[in-house]
Amino acid sequence: MVDVYESEQEQIEALKRWWSENAVSAVLGVVLGLSGLFGWYQWQDYQGGQQAGASAVFTELLRGVQEDNTDNAPALADQLVSDYAGTHYANLGQLAAARVAVEAGDLETAASRLQWVVDNASASHFEQVATLRLAQLALGQDQLAKAEQLLSGTFPSSYMAIAEELRGDLAVAQGDSNAARVAYDRALNAELPLQNPMRVEMKRDNLGNVDLTNTESSDS
Fold first, then answer.
1. Predicted TM-score of the model (pTM)
2. Contact assessment for residue 170 and residue 204, using Cβ atoms and an 8 Å cutoff
3. What is the pLDDT of residue 73?
4. Mean pLDDT of 164-178
5. Average confidence score pLDDT of the chain
6. Which helix (H) or strand (E) element contains residue 217?
7. How many angstroms separate the CA atoms of 22 and 136, rounded?
8. Is 30 within 8 Å of 41 (Cβ atoms)?
9. For residues 7 and 205, what is the distance between their CA atoms, to the nearest angstrom?
10. Which residues fall within 8 angstroms of residue 65, CB to CB, at 6 or more apart?
């Protein structure tokens, strides 16, 4: 993910693979696969005035993503922002459209959509998801200072494992094996574990035997 690639296209392809394989599967559940969560938001939003329209637009967007027919996804996400900016569906639409942009190799658009969610989140967990995805994009583009800034905040327990894994990846990119090992250990021991802990274990094992004394003492 954070290696130097020989071409921009290789970097984009690696980012796309990493995006789909990494802990994104957990946060993508906000957009895909968590029908219960979607249903809860749908019930809440129907209490408002325009929410039925927002629900219909997002349902169309979601169906296209699930069926790998994403041509209309950007326009539908933009419609949710322009017509229903205050709803949860606008956030969900931007997250889904950002994923589509990443898969198309349009990282600038993906970052812009994620930043919109950070700036306009209708609920805190949307901001957390978008922040973590922005950090992933920054790591994929070797923008280490930006990734560090995005990961410098605090995250709730539901996202702590993902955040710590990303902090480990950042530390590896910065050449700090001690900090990387500690971060990966924290990811593996988080209150809500990763869906694929073996991936993090492999990353940690690849660091070899490192001296954690200085890092651990600095944490205490």
1. 0.74
2. no
3. 93
4. 95
5. 80
6. helix 213-219
7. 10
8. no
9. 28
10. 31, 32, 73, 96, 99, 100
Confidence of residue 122 (pLDDT cuts 50, 70, 90): confident
Question: Is 80 exceeded by the pLDDT of residue 79?
Answer: yes
What's the CA gap between 61 and 72, in Å, rounded?
7
Considering all CA atoms of the chain, what is the largest pairwise distance in Å, rounded to the nearest integer? 59
SS (H, E, C) 127-180: HHHHHHHHHHHHHHCCCHHHHHHHCCCCCCHHHHHHHHHHHHHHHHHCCCHHHH
Question: Residues 6 or more apart from 123 whose CB is under 8 A from it?
Answer: 88, 91
Number of Cβ within a 10 Å radius of residue 43: 10
Q: What distance in Å separates the CA atoms of residue 163 and residue 175, rounded to the nearest whole number?
A: 18
- Residue carrying the six token digits 């349009």: 106
Calculate the dihedral angle through the C-alpha atoms of 108, 113, 117, 119, rounding to the nearest 10 degrees: 60
CA distances from 220 to 70, 213, 214 (A): 49, 11, 10
**Tokens linked to 148:** 């560090």
Query: 């790998």: which residue's tokens?
Result: 68
What is the DSSP-derived secondary structure letter of residue 4? Answer: P
Return the sign of the alpha-carbon dihedral for residues 143, 122, 112, 35. Answer: positive
